[in-house]
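Target chain:
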Amino acid sequence: MAGNDFDPSQLTASQQEALGTYTSVTNQEPSAAVPLLKRSQWNVQIAIAKFFDGEAPDPVEEARASLASSPAPPSQSSRQETLMNGFSRSPRPHDRSHLDPAPRIVPQPENQNVYRPPFVLALLLTPFNVLYRLLSGSYRLFTYLFPFLPRLLSGLSGSRAQPRRSKDTSGRRPLNPRDTAARFAREFEEEYGHHDLKFFENGYAQAYDLAKKELKFLLVVLLSPEHDDTSTFVRSTLLSPEVISYINDPQNKIILWAGSVQDSEAYQVSAALNCSKFPFAAIVAQTPRDSSTSMSTLARISGLVPPSAFVPKLQTAISQHSAALERARTSRNEQQETRNLREEQNTAYERSLAQDRERARQRREAEEARSRAEKEEKEKAAAAEQETRNREQWRLWRAATIPPEPVGSGDHITRVSIRMASGERVVRKFEAQADMESLYAFVECHDVLQNGGPQSMAVKPDNYNFTYRFRLVSPMPRVVYDYVESDTIGNKVGRSGNLLVEPIDDESED
């Protein structure tokens, strides 16, 4: 299922879920992740641990391979030849290419976890705690007054009284990996002066992960300050110009991590890398031919080695595995480019989809706005038509209620000369006590009165408030005669008057 034949549809639902969880954490291609998940029995936690810590050889598979490739039982003559020549045998090609796995080490300081007893138990142990503090304080005072006694007692007790680890008596406070690396770099520079080595400024696990991620070589240097060859190794070999030049050469792609075994992290790394002698150096890198996630120890350099031998060993180890790492780096770059291209395509698709959605939204809003405008136009047209019908019905009704023109003359009669909007002049008499609205109604219904008179059957429209669209004004001087129910024609106009019909603009009004 790996390679180009990988088909996610052949996996079950649980396997697809495990594959998704694994790739989201490790960012590995599914085609390369499926074989590792198969070897891990589809256990995501085990597969992730193998990816970051390296995948050790499977003893079951090795046993099956050895049984399958084991030769036939030797004959009697071959047994005698073996006894004569010794038990040495030429190693198999599998053994020659086998490399020890390099595990990922996370430091675990001894005093990292502090046990706190329950309150009741702590209360019961308080007298013993006070007694212990008194005795330890007295012992420190005694050793301060008589400093030769502890050395005398340690000499009498023999080698068994020596601590198991030198770091326990060094008084070094455990720190986190970054601070431990900074402390080592500071002490190294204080001891050996300024140098051009570029130590990795973090813990071994972080350097391990960086080398695995970027497919670089991790050069691990472990020093023991109590060893006699440490100072000579550092000054003559590690700080030699040819070693510094080779390590700092960007083409070699080396990450340098160094530590003192007095620190917990470096001590655990020395145990994991099978360090047998100090000073110690090891080259760690990913070995794609063994596994896509395994990290192996390519070479070990123990003891006091001169620069003339130290650099060739590094060159040999790096040159033997540079081609495989370069192929893996090229393959990873191609996968990353493919992933980036797919992400760019997805981004472009999402952008195009968003633009299509925006255009669809704009079309939908435009359609809704057009529908609203059409609906409003229809409503306005219907309202205008209804207004026209109501207005015409009101005019018919109002024309029927206009009293006839009074006859005669006198103070109770007001004669008004009206110039209509059409230019026609109309002279009519009105009762002086009639209100101004009667004058306005006559002007409004003049055409109805002229065209045969009002209809007696006309009814006033319900819930309709009629408004006059003109005003009556006197020309000289200009006076506007508004209609108010309390004002009469006689009070406003007098016994006679000349008035003009002035239409009212709908947009502006004086």
